[in-house]
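Give me the fold.
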Amino acid sequence: MKSTTLMGIGSLCLAASGGALAAPANDTPAPAIAEAVAGATAAEGGYDPSLAAVLRRWAQQGVFLRANLINQYAGNSTGGVDQGSSNVGQFNAGADLDLDTLFGVRGGSFHVTVYRDYGHGLNHDTTGTFTKQQHIYKNEYTHLHLGLFAYEQKLMDNRLDLVVGRLGTTSYYGKLSANCQFQSATHCGLPRLINAQSGFSLLPSATWGVNVQFKPTPHTYVETGVFEVNPTSAASNGTDFSVADATGVTVPVEWGWNRADAKADLPPFALKLGGYVSTAPYSDRFYNTDGRSRGLYGGSARRVNANRTGVYAMGERVVWRPGPGSMRGLNLFGGISQQLEVEEIMRQQIHAGLVMTGPSAARPQDTLGFSVSYFNLTDKEQAYLRDARIRAGGEGSNNPHQFAFELNYGWHPSRGVVVIPNVQYIVHPDNSGLPNTPVLPDNLFAFGLSVQLNFGSMIGLRREGGGGGD
């Protein structure tokens, strides 16, 4: 753990010495690359040999390079299975190739991203909660991992968008723009319940998939896709493209209505309705293969050969701005996610919150965020945790009604750098991540610090924002 912490801090120092960065890392394919370039030359009529100018020229010529580093520290002073701290992070680097500019393939582009995760999350080793205190903790295997590797084709004046290749389902569904202005993983980049219990693939652990989005009007869309479920992807380096270990597919669908231009006279908003079905088998939360309580008698979990299904609804709206076209404003968001089967850890999640961008005129890019999520623990998971606690020498049942809060401030000291100190509090925390303990967890108080660096923004490259790095 010490070496990974030092690596994260050292990387941050190296990055900070170079300049400034941007908002949360974005793993979704970039828009038209020509639109992403700002300032191709430093001096009129002259050649600028600096790295920044070279990368800008490459972007103009169809090769947009990007790199991001997110480092998140978290510790809990009370509650959870135990108390402690951890430092985790992810570095990713990749390219977006404009095939129209490069080869004349109109509307075509190719996207690739390589990832390097480090550290174990606080919930993995210490608190044991279903929710994560660090949203960037996605893969416990600390090696280079080929993630996004995909071809994209836009048709019908960009109304139809097709993407095929090695994808992460979470890059496309259940995302709101405000949801990754937080360190905890209750809703970044999509609600935790969907992220963990739907069969969605999560970058860097990409799987084969195809995604289709169609815009019948400028402000509405319908989106669906088919994505491989492959439990071996996370432990691999991402270069094994075989489907021999696939266990099923996940099919999500989403309808959305939005207005995303923050500088428009009318305030931005988004409304999204969606659902999913996953055909891959999964584990029973209570019974072992002998049909007995796994908590009391141990053994392997019984396999459930049934579809996973769920639905969700979410939205956000800017309800206040100091004037038309201002980037400052108050954004309210909320949503509900519901599993339709009972063989899960959580049955329901309801989340809501606010993000104030530009809390003062002197700090127009800073943010102030607050969020709350309600989780409903399933009866089977509650019984399993109770029995496992008895077997470990303890007693008591987890309260099935869990509430998770976060309050933070997003400081933008310079272009491309975001520093987010935060505090988190969980009422009635579960211990689904560390079930074999006599401890019945008390309410949890955690504190954290997230540092996000976008190296492209440091040198003046610009691309449209999306969700967080999920």
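Confidence is low (pLDDT under 50) at residues 1-26, 30-44, 464-470.
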